[in-house]
Amino acid sequence: MFRFLSMAWLCLLAWAGPAQALTAEQALAMAAGDTDDRVAAVQQAIVQPDERIAAFLKALADDEVKVVGAGKAAIIVRDGKGIDPATGTDMPVPDDAEDVINNNRMRGEIDTAMAGLALFGKDDAKRLAAAKALTREPDAGRLPLLDKALAQETQPAIKAQLELARSATLLGSEDAAQRIAAAQALSLSATPDTRLLLNERATVEEDAKVKAALQAALKAIDGELAWGERLGAAFSGISLGSILLLVALGLAITYGLMGVINMAHGELMMIGAYATYVVQGLFQKYLPGAFDWYLVAAVPLAFGASALVGAVLERSVLRFLYGRPLETLLATWGISLVLMQLVRTIFGAQNVGVENPAWMSGGVQVLSNLTLPYNRLVIIGFAIAVLLSMGWLIGRTRLGLFVRGVTQNRPIASCMGVNTARVDTMAFALGSGIAGLAGCALSQVGNVGPDLGQSYIVDAFMVVVLGGVGQLAGTVYAALGLGVLNKFLEGWAGAVLAKIAVLVFIIIFIQKRPQGIFAVKGRTAD
Description:
The protein contains 21 helices and seven strands. It is mainly alpha-helical. The strands form two sheets. The chain has a five-stranded antiparallel beta sheet. A hairpin with a 6-residue loop joins β3 and β4. The relative contact order is 0.09.
């Protein structure tokens, strides 16, 4: 009771007159004594914000405050020089100065107090962030601060957030009616933070009417958040599907055209990712002002590097193994090991970091519990662009005509004058280049390392087989379908069981339809 009256008296003094500068007594109260008293002093000080108070709180957070005179005063010590917190003047640092120790609770209170001071700044974004921080950390001692901020706030969005912060604070009130009103007000804010606050209160609430109001509020919030979770799972599935699509597009061409089981496809992706890493380093060193555009330059270089390696592999090794799928599997597996070791020798065995450009950082907040990252949105758009380009190339160009002809009937295409060996090389280089583009995209969502390709090669083959060998439309349906299915199953059964379930589904599907979703059309199609 004494502590409650003390707090009420401090708040009354704070409201009684104009803002007062930080005093030596206030500084000492915030720096020394029992944690409860220090917390109360901090809460009282920020009710009437002052530059000296903000500076002293910053010094407390940075462990730059000492107590001198056997607990008679507090000073700021910075770079070996003493500063009077009340006046800002320099002062000597006595020999008996003792460090102020801040426990976790005190540090949390200081951080929240500093956020509370931002409620009175001119920056709308900082005021909104401060209001959200106070909503997550409700405390009855901050009610005067919230009331004062509400009285002078003019922005509707910030004012609404302050109202939520006030309701969150009143959720712990001794008045049951106030707790019910607070629960009803919080039910209108369907956010994970609000749900957490209501859940915490519901576990300790003893009043039946208040508990019923809390349960009703939680039910309303859960209903709204469920849509965000479903949409989030769908977006994650589409994002994963777009990555699988990029990975599998090149494999659909090489496997569908030549029947080559290319186990080095993942390493061709890895080459594209490392090409992106090299371009990033060159921009950082020689063109730092244009760093945000390094990815634009990395895309064609990643394609070219992987396409060149693919063309060399086809001309030097794979052309002698056509018609022997087991030998191509063993040969490309050995090539993958060579490429991984080569990368380890050049770049090291540790993962390397590839930074997102500024325009790919952040995200779009659609719902309170659903944020769409820019890098994922860009990758989805990139996958669509690559797919459309591939569709145009295969369906509208002379090379595409030759590729389709050789895919459907190689002997007849050869009899018609098509240089099938050249088509094989160009098609394999094209598929390898698309793998490089996939590696460039993957570098924006994860680490780049020698084992990058191993994480996706099995999924890529599953997509190609499920969609139908050599069928772009089937590859699209299979990639997006597997991505969405995998993410929804992860939320229900976990990542491992989801992988197993997807594999079982593919096995059953192939048993019923060996040609995949779309069968190959042609006289030689089985």
